[in-house]
Structures are given as structure tokens and as C-alpha cells.
Amino acid sequence: MKKKKKRVTLASLLVKALCASAVLIFIFTSGFRNYLNYEINRQSDEYVFGNFENYTGQIDRLEIDYSEEEILKRMNAQLPVYSVFEIDIYEPFTSNVVIINPLYSENCHFAAAIIDENKNIVATNEKSFVSKISFGKNHKDNGFYSCNRELINLPEVDKFYDEYLNKESLNLYYEYDFDSVYVNRENFTFIPHKGTATLIKDENEGPFYDDEEEYDSKISVVKTDDIDITIDSDEYELIELSKFKGISDDESTYPRQSIFGYYGEEKEIIDSFDFTFISKTAGSGSKAWEIEDGVEQYKRYERVYINKKPYYLFVGYIVDKNDKDVVNFHIKWSIIFGVFVLFAAMLLVWFENTKNKAKYAMEDYQRDLTNNLAHDIKTPLMAIGGYTENIMEGNLTEKEREDYLSHILENVSFADNLVNRTLQLNKMGETKLNKEKIKAEEIFEKAIQKYAPMLDEKNIKYTVNGSCEVKAEPVSFEALVENLVSNAVKYTQENGEIKGIFNSKSFAVTNTVAEKIDTKDLKTPFVRGDKSRSNVKGSGLGLSIADKSAISNNMKLKISCSDKEFKAEVKI
User: Fold this and answer.
1) Cβ neighbours, 10 Å, residue 105
2) Which of 76, 92, 201, 502 is deepest in the core (most CB within 10 A)?
3) Does 511 lie in the same domain as 489?
């Protein structure tokens, strides 16, 4: 015996959906974390090699005009400016970006150095106040000058650093304007003399903007400090700076200064990189490892030649893959993906559950239809069997024999009608409907005329009120009206009344009754109501067929009953 297939419940669908969602979310979260790690490594490597190319390009250009010693001094001033390290991770669908760089990220650092054959650092990107000073068009002393506190070692410079260094943040920065500076052209160093330092607050959320006026409105001056540093040193000359801002070859616009700011890396960070891995026998090398959870260090060197003398160009970075902005970015998009997956899963559960409910309802309907048919058909079959046995036993008068045969034919007709109407009910909705415009009141008149003899016999009157035009499939719509009329004729008491009421939004068939009946299950197949309806011979399929006919034509059958009237209304 074939085992009955177990039905899928809503609870089991939910469990499966939640388990599948959890797996997908886990896979996405892990994969997205791996992607972020890969992107950090990829961009880090790009910056390392990009900086190598930049540094070697600078050395090649300086070799044209300067000696080995001068090149090293210039590179010492330029490395802080030209050392660029920033990882940008863009959010999908927005212009927002997660930035990891030494200025704003706690555990992100970038070191660059030129090292001699004895592994001594001769130039580095140690943090310093840097400016570009121009003495004239194509002047040999033009270039970057560094106000390096370690190199200059003066109390006035230490004070300047203490007042302004590390006081900047993501939304606060200084703008400097100098009237005069002290310059050491041999060491490419400078010291501010007279000028101002203006602290600017920028409340814009990012560098991107559509409205320039709105962008400017969020930038404000916090304070302005006067700078006045005086030194007495033969190593530095005092020069007055031009106020000219822009590009010009006019000698009167020189000397002039531009690009003020703190660049480079802290000395202790640079010292934390171990240079012992540099090998004289290898032209280049690299090494990477994890310092602590999520924090990685990477370093690389290449052999370079400055005026044919060998040196090593070193680049290293430290980056935290668990930087708070990266972690928040990971959490944010994991939650967004999780919400999307859960929403999609619940949508699929709802769809699958709705489909299953319809499927199981149809299975139950067909099972009940079959069971009820089998039950109801027993009565005429038993009657036929009984009458046939009586006829076969003989000893019947001619009249009794005719009566038995008449009853047999009636029960055969009833059984045949029961089977045909059951098949009609079961087939409804299986074929595509070709709809036409139909006048419902005309179909009602046509249907009720079929029962004229019964109406006369029971002295039942009928009336037609209003008109109604519908768009429906003719056969199924006629079945709808026919069954409503048949039901009304069958259950209207003697001397009663049947009404057909029609308007643009609905039509109804009403009939008088002796008492109120329960209409709850009357559209269910083989239900014939109670009390006054239970003793009327019928199949109990009329209202079921009418209901399915209405549904197949996108209409709705609503039945109700009061103490005196039964009403079947079809909403168009």
C-alpha cells in the first residue's frame, strides 16, 4: 500500500528558510570579510610599488643637476610629501567611502627611507613641517624645504611643533601664511619667522559636493594665531616672501612659498621597522607578517643607484584590517544583506505556503467531493437494488410493477444527474474562458421559464427588477444563473415569491423561506442546509457550482438568509 505523502507545514518551511538564510548570511559575511582583506592588501601593494616608481623618478630627475649629497638632502625633504598611502573602499550604490590612511587611522602607518650599504638611514619620510620655496624661475635652490625639529634642534622650533603638530583632525586643519622665513639652502631646511596660523573647521562629510556655496558654508574659522619666531644663527638667512599667489615668471613675485603642512611618519614608527633583512646579495626583497590580531606589517626594498653609488630604497606599511571603520562597514553591509535575505526568504515561504495551501485545499476538496458522492449515491443505488429484488421475486400486480420501475428510473436519473453535476463542478476552472457581454436579466428570465410548471403548481410568483450587463463566459455564466434559479425554485415555499434584482454592480436572486437557515457551509458540495432544506430531494451541488462559476468569471457569490428571505447575490 502506497504511503500517504506527508504535507509540508508552515513551521517546516520557516525552519528550512531560516537555516538556508543563516548559511547564506554566514557565507556572505565570511566572503565579504575576505574581500575586504583582499582589497586592503591589493591597494597596499599598489601604493608600495607606486611609491617606489615615484621615488626612483624623483632621483632620476635630481641626478641631472645635483650631486649625491644634495640629492640625499633634497630627498630627505621630499619623502614626507611624496609618501602617499591611502586605502579607499567605496560603498555600493552611494558616494560614501571608507578611508584608511596614516592621518586618520590609529594603526595605519607608512614609512619610506633611503639606506646606505652599511644600513644607515640617510633620508626618510620622518614627520615634519614642509613647504615648497621658489627663489626664481628655474633657480637651482627651488624645491621642498623641511622644518624638521630633529634636524634643526632649536627650542623655537620645538615650541612651534608643540603648539601645532598633531592638533589637526579629520575636520580641523591649519592654514599658514608666512611673511618671512629663515632658510638653510644647503640642508634644505627652513624655520618660520613672521606669519599666521589659522585653524579651519570643515563640517562637510566628504570631498564630494554638488553645491559649492553649500560646501563653503560649512567651512569656518575657529581661531587665528600670530607666529613670531626669531633666531640668531649664521646657518640661516632671513628672506621676505612675496604675497603673490598663483603662477607667474615675473621675478618680482619671487621668492614665494606654497604647500604648507605636516607630512610624513613619526620617528618611532620608522624605527620600529627592522632593516636587517636587507641583503647586499639581493637586488630586492619583501617580507610581510602579522604584528597582532588584524594588524599587519609589510616591508620591501630595492637597490637604487645615486650618481652610480648603491643605496637601498625602503618602503613599509602597517595596516589594521580590524580598523573600526572597516569593521563598521563590514557589519553594516552584513546586516543589509541579512535583512534582504530574510525578507526574500519570508517572501518565498509565503509564496510556497500559499501554493501548498491551495494545493492541499484542492486535494481536500476533491477527496471530500469523491467521499460525498460515494455516500450520496448509495441511497439511489440501494433503492434501485431494493425495487429490483421486489420485481424479481414476482407476485406483484401490474400497478406495483409499474410503480417500482418508475421509482427505479427516478433513482437512475437522480444518480446520473448527481454524477454529471459532480463532474461539471470538478472541471470548472480548467479551461480558458472566452468572455462576452451578456445581459444577466435575460439569462434569469430564460432559466426561470424552465420551471414554469413547478411555479404554477406551487403558486410561486417571480419578478425581474432592473438590468445588468456583465462580461463573462456564456456557458459558465448560464450555469451560475441556472443553479441560483434552480435553488430558489426548489426551496421556495408554496405561495412564495422569487425576485431577480439587477444593477450595474451586482445581481441577486431572492426567494421566500419559512424560517432562517444557517448559510455557513451551503457553498460546500453536498451540503443541503438544515431543517426545511434537509427534506427536499436535491444533490447539494447547485450553490457549489454557482460559486465556482462566479469565481471562474472573476465574480463573487455571497449568500445570506433572514427569517423570511434567502438571498444569493453575485458581486460583479
Assistant:
1) 20
2) 76
3) yes
Residue 49 scores a pLDDT above 60: yes
Residue 338 pLDDT > 90? yes
Long-range contacts of 236-243 (CB under 8 A, 24+ apart): 236/182, 236/183, 236/184, 236/190, 236/191, 237/182, 237/183, 237/184, 237/185, 238/180, 238/181, 238/182, 238/183, 238/193, 239/180, 239/181, 239/182, 239/183, 240/179, 240/180, 241/178, 241/179, 241/180, 241/181
Instruction: Extract the runs of DSSP E, i.e. beta strands, from 31-100.
Output: 87-90, 97-100
Task: Give the whole-angstrom CA distance, residue 272 versus residue 79.
Answer: 18
Please tell me whether residues 565 and 435 are part of one structural domain: yes
Q: Which domain holds residue 205?
A: 128-263
Residue with cell 410493477: 401
At 38, which amino acid appears? Y
Distance (Å, whole) CA 357 – CA 29 = 35
DSSP three-state, residue 305: strand
Q: Which of these, 556, 557, 554, lies nearest to 568 by C-alpha position?
A: 557
Q: Same domain, yes or no, for 280 and 379?
A: no
DSSP 390-440: HHHH----HHHHHHHHHHHHHHHHHHHHHHHHHHHHHHTTSS----EEEEH
Quick one: cell of 74?
Answer: 633634497
Helices (H) and strands (E) in the chain, counts: 12, 21
> Does 511 lie in the same domain as 436?
yes
pTM exceeding 0.90: no
Which pLDDT band holds residue 209 (cuts at 50, 70, 90)? Answer: low
Residues 259 and 273 in one domain: no
Q: What values do phi and psi take at 22, rounded to 5?
A: -60, -40
DSSP-based three-state secondary structure for 151: helix
| pLDDT band per the 50, 70, 90 thresholds, residue 530 | very low
Alpha helices in 63-132 (DSSP H): 68-82
Contacts 24+ apart (CB under 8 A), 57-62: 58/82, 59/304, 59/306
Cell numbers given for 417 = 444527474
pLDDT above 70 for 453: yes
Q: Which among 519, 498, 497, 513 is positioned nearest to 447, based on CA atoms? A: 498
* Cα separation, 307 vs 69, whole angstroms: 10
